[in-house]
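User: Fold this; C-alpha cells only.

Assistant: Input:
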Amino acid sequence: MANVQATLDPLDKVTSATIYYAYTGPSGTYGNYSADMYQLGIGDHAADIDVGLEADFPLGGDDGTLEVYIHAVDKDGNTVDSNWLSIPVKYCGDMVGQPPSGDVPSISYFTGPASATAGNTITLEWEVLNSCKVFLDGDDTNLGMGVYSYKIPTNWGGQSYRHTLTAWGNSCDSSSEVIAYHDIWIDTLPTTIATGSGNLKDSLSLDFGDGNGDDVIFDHQASDIVLYTVWGSELRVYSNGIEPSIAQCIAEINLGTYSTVSIDANDYICYRTGSGNYGYLEIMGMFLDFDNRTNSYIDVSYYTEVKP
C-alpha cells in the first residue's frame, strides 16, 4: 500500500483533490487509475494506492515506477494540475513493497530543524532501509526516503513538539518495529502593538490599527455623547476609571459588550475589534459645540494588541 501526501496551496481554498496515476515498467506504461484524496489538515491531502494489487499485472516481476499527478479544485471552481511525479516501485518477491525475508528495518536518519517560530513552515526528512511500512506521527507514508513540509499553527508557540518516525520490517507489523524521534522547540510568534492618537470629529470613524477597517464612530447627539461600533467591534467602558492592561480589558469584555457606549473625558473604553484583537481607547479631551454639533470632536489615543 502506498500513501501519497501533498500540500496544496492556497491552503484554505482547496475543496477537493484527486490523484491520477499509472505504472511504468520495461514494457511501457499501463493503467489509467484515479483515487479521491482525503484531507489530513489545512492544505494537506493524502490518498492510499494498493500498489501490491495493482502493479502485479503491469509490472509482473520487474521493478518500475508509479507515475502520479494531482488535480485540485478550489472554492471558486477553479482547477489546477500538478506536475507528474515518479515514485520507484520495487519487486520484492510475493508482494510489491515487501522486504526480503529476514531483513530488519533501519532508520538511517530522521532530521528537521531544532527550533522554529509558530507560523513558519518546516521540513522533515528521513531515510529508512529494509522496511515494509513507514509511519510519520502515526500516518502511513510508505516512503523509505521521504520529505514532509508543513506550516506550524500560530497557536503552538512556547512548547516542544515531538515527531515520531516508525518503521516496520519483514513481519509488516509492530513486532519488527523501529522508532526514531525528532523534537522541535516552537517559539511564540511575537505580538504586534498598534498605537495611535488624534482628533476624532463628529460622525467620523476610527480604525484601531489592526487593518480590519474602521472600528468606532464618534457621535455628538442632542441628548448624549457616544461611540458606536462598525465592522463587528465591541465596546465596554472600563469600570475602574484608570488605564487598564490588555488582560484587564479582556476580562472586562468577557463580562459583556455593547455596540454603543456613552463617553466622558478621561474615560477608558475597552474593545475587541472585528478581527478579534483587544485594546483600549482613552478619551483625553472633549471639545463640544452645542450650537453646531458637527464641529464637535474628541482627542483620543488607542492601544491595540494585534494577534499573530
